[in-house]
Amino acid sequence: TFGGYILLGVVENADKSFSSVPLSSPEKIVSDFWNSVNNHSVVNVNILSDRNVQIVESGGNRIVIIEVPRADRHDKPVYAGSDPFAGSYRRNGEGDYRCTKDEVRAMMRDQADISQDARVMDTMTTNVFDMDTIRRYRQRMDNLRPGHVWSELAVEVFPASYWRYGAGRQ
User: Fold this and answer.
1) How many domains does the chain have?
2) 134 and 152 belong to one structural domain
3) Which of 33, 35, 42, 153 could form an SS bridge with 157, CB 3.0 to 4.6 Å?
4) Does 81 or 169 have the greater pLDDT score?
């Protein structure tokens, strides 16, 4: 999810340094990589461009460097295969771990241009608010933002002002 690098033709040494090893055909590896990443039965979305894949010389060998960018929230989850719940992984330290169903659902929910919390409900009236909750929220707001223009409103009017503010954002 955060992006990173994939190095092909490289081994990690005991001291955590890297050394290159010969690749038989870096061009074929890159071609096969592009065929796979553009195949929707292998991965659901390709977030890479040509500039993200390079063949470079290192230690007398040609290696392949793939820079994987951070996926935009609209593209998440990026997953292998056809099932996001079985093919979504996250990096944690040195390993990759399968995402939980809740993590996958959260990524899917966050794809929307407008979050569920920001969505304005056309048919909502102020009687849906719990006034005790509004009073507590209002007190917190007054403590955090003394002198705010809404601080002068009566508690019963406060949610209506907030509601109208949301309606104006449509």
Assistant:
1) 3
2) yes
3) 153
4) 81
Burial class (CB in 10 A: 0-12, 13-18, 19+), 85: middle
What's CA 72's distance to the chain center, in Å?
Answer: 6
Mean pLDDT computed over 50-64: 97
Q: What is the CATH number of the domain that holds 39?
A: 3.30.950.30
User: Does residue 163 sit in helix, strand or coil?
Assistant: helix
Structure-token pair, residue 28: 């074929």
Residue 50 carries which side chain, given as an amino acid letter? D
Same domain, 155 and 135: yes
Can you give the pLDDT at residue 127?
A: 73
Instruction: Provide the residue range defining the domain that includes 93.
Output: 77-116
CB 69 within 8 A of CB 6: no
Question: 3 and 55 share a domain?
Answer: yes
3-state secondary structure at position 12: strand
Other CB atoms within 10 A of residue 16 CB? 6
Q: Is the model's pLDDT at 170 over the cut of 60? A: no
The model's pTM? 0.65
Burial of residue 159, with CB atoms counted within 10 A of its CB: 0-12 exposed, 13-18 middle, 19 or more buried: buried
The structure tokens 């959260």 sit at 106
On the CB side of 39, how many CA atoms lie within 13 Å of its CA?
10
User: Do 154 and 105 fall into the same domain?
Assistant: no
CA distance 23 to 131: 69
